[in-house]
Amino acid sequence: MRLIIFGPPASGKGTQAPFFTEKFNIPHISTGSMFREETKKDTKLGLKIKQLLDKGHLIDDETTNLMVKDRLSMPDAKNGFLLDGYPRTLNQAKYLDEMLNEAGLKLDYAIDLFCDDEIAIKRITGRRMCPKCGKIYNIYFTKPSVDGICDVDGTLLIRRADDTVEIAKKRLEIYYQSTEPLINYYKNKGNLILADGGLLDAAHTFDQIINKIGDKK
Ligand SMILES: [Zn+2]
After folding, report:
1. Domain ranges of the chain
2. What is the 125 CA–ligand 1 centroid distance (Å)?
């Protein structure tokens, strides 16, 4: 099963990924994690990526395409993959199609995990973390028993500085601007699947996706 998944920040892509890896026995390939890994290496590519990320820039298509091509040629991706964070532009989408085409393969589905803005913003701005044990809470959805205090060890919870409404709105806006053309691209190709990433239970979101895959077969 060859899949890509995209969705706005806080739509739950990271939460969905393990369901896919388990059900289809495919690797979860996140370009975001790949970039972060690469910056830890002392290579020319790692340095270039670090400089771009530090300035808040997106990594250019050429670099991203080559990294993904390299990753998809590894043995664990032979029978499929779940790509997350790629393609991000129309050029990347076309490159992926050509790459698969050359290997006699095709993308099975493009999953669009949509999420209501209000829920996404609450998920982002409501996030609180325990600096001691790392447990994550959300003041709207998964509150600690005592406000602001970790249930496990009584530590004062902290909020990330960039989890503000303004920054959340900006991130959503950038996402919609850049991804809209992709949604149309896959809609036209007929392999787009929509699923609601805003549900409280992530397993229900995964059920929606599996049902739609079943319908299309
Ligand atoms: Zn804690």
Report:
1. 2-126+163-216, 127-160
2. 19
pLDDT by residue (tens digit) across 72-117?
A: 999 999 999 999 999 988 999 999 999 999 999 999 999 999 999 9
Query: Is 171 marked active-site?
Result: yes
Say which CATH superfamily domain 2-126+163-216 falls into: P-loop containing nucleotide triphosphate hydrolases (3.40.50.300)
CB 53 within 8 A of CB 34: no
Sign for the pseudo-dihedral over CA of 124, 209, 186, 109: positive
Catalytic residue among 2, 13, 122, 123: 13
| Ligand 1 centroid to residue 54 C-alpha, Å | 30
Candidates 36, 69, 160, 189; catalytic one = 160
CB 53 within 8 A of CB 47: no
136-182 pLDDT, tens digit per residue, is 999 999 999 999 999 999 999 999 887 889 989 988 998 898 888 99
